[in-house]
Structures are given as C-alpha cells and as structure tokens.
Amino acid sequence: MNAHSINSVMVAQRAASFTTRSIKKESKRQGLRMAIGMVDLTTLEGKDSPEKVRSLCRKAMHPWEGQIDPPIPPVAAVCVYPSLVSIARDELAGSGVKVASVATGFPSGQFPISARLEDVRFAVDNGADEIDMVINRGAFLQGDQDTVMEEIRLTRQACGHAHLKIILETGELETLDNVRRASDLAIEAAATSPGAPPLVDGSVFIKTSTGKVSPAATMPVTLVMLEAIRDHWLSSGVRIGMKPAGGIRTAKQALHYLVMVKETLGDAWLRPELFRFGASSLLNDLLRQLIKQDTGNYMSVSDFSEA
What is the pTM of this model? Predict the structure, then answer.
C-alpha cells in the first residue's frame, strides 16, 4: 500500500464545494429517485422482531403507497442482524431488494475471529446477499495491519458469493490519514483473499460507519474514501463500491453526496450496485421532496410510515 498524506484543509474545502452546485428541477427529480434506489433500510436494535423486519421489508419494496408516474422505485437492501435474515429473505423473495446482514461481532468487531466467521457463515446460509463486517479498529490503531488484513481476507472467504461491505468506523480512526490507510488496506485485503471469488465491480464496498459511533459519515471522510476507490480503479480496472452510513438525514444532503460521487468517480458509480446510503431516516425526506417535485405539494411527515 502506498502512503498518502492527507491535507485536511484542502479536503474540507473540496468537500464543501460539492454543496454549492446548482441542480435543475429535472436533474433534482432524477437524483431523488436515484437516491431512493440506493438506500439500505436498516434495523439493528435489541428490540428487533420478525414483524418489525417484515414491516421494514414491505416499506423497502413499496416506499410509498400513493401513485406518481413513474412509480417510486424500491430501495436497494434491507439490513438486519443474522438471526433475522431468513425473515427478510422470505419477505423480499422475488422483489430484487437485497438482504444484507451485519456480522463479525457488530458493532465492536472485538469477538474472537472464529465467532465472527461463524456469524458470517450463519447469515449467508440463511440467505444474506450482502455482509457488512466491521474491522478491528484496536488492531489497526496499534499498527497491526497484518491482523486486520487477515481478518478481512478470512471474512471474504466466509462470504462465498455474498458481497462484502467493510466498515471502517471512521469516527474512531482519529485522522483522515488513518481513513485513507484503512481504505487502502481494506481494498487490498479484499483483492488478495485466497479462496474467495475474483474481485469484480461491486462485489466489495468500503463503508464509513456502523451508525453506532459519532461522528459517522461526513463529506470529507467520504471524499477521502472515494479517492482511494478511484486510485484502485485506475490501477486495477475494478470498481469498489462506497457506502456512507449514519448522519445523512435530508434529501439535500443526499444530493450533495451524489454530486461528490459523480465528480470524483464518474457516472458509472451512480447506481446501487456501487453506491449506497446507510441512512434509514433519509428515506422519508427523499420521498417527501420527490412528491413535492411531482405534485407541487409537500406531504405531512405523518403521511409516511416510519422506516
């Protein structure tokens, strides 16, 4: 891995510049629809139940019961704990919405590696299309990159043909230099995992956060990760996916992120196979803004079910 020194001031200025772009009405409408199709609806609480997951899956497939033309698209995925994967799999069958599962001792990543890998295998065996793993931040911050890389490689092997999202938990990485190093490390480990399927476009994502630590996703952090993805693509021709998660709550913010992706990576990444939002609370604002664009009227917050 090449060493990168990040100028935090320049990154912050560049990230802020994406919020100043003027987006015309039709482009805004297209962007809102695009963002809806990139959302991973998530429930990761101790009180999660089968019925709560079924309700979330119904919202994922049909985000709004009203009618506009063209119809509102489904979201990208529903993310649940491994024990609830089979419930989501059955509810989403045939819909095209993916089943994602957090694993590897989420959110701490501090379980023994054998337990973390069993977590992954259990989720995949029960029907998970995607696995969201967390890296061992303690090992990373102590400089033990070999351990972190080996654990990523073992996790990708355990995923089989399920896609892997590697959560860096950037709020605990302390500096943008560490965010870049962790991004490069994660991508390299995934690309050099013996026994795993070949790395192809979208089979691996890097993800900012678990949503359990603050700060979560920020535009400067996401920009640094996008640049790591860009450099890997330029050197290998393989497109790694990106998922900012946590803290993105408004449609306006989501459009800023899409502008950043377009201007950093290009149009190829503007699809759910390569870019996701980990922000369940975002969906209702996207719906509200899209319906305003199409009808001229704002819906009440109470007109939408809770995500």
Answer: 0.94
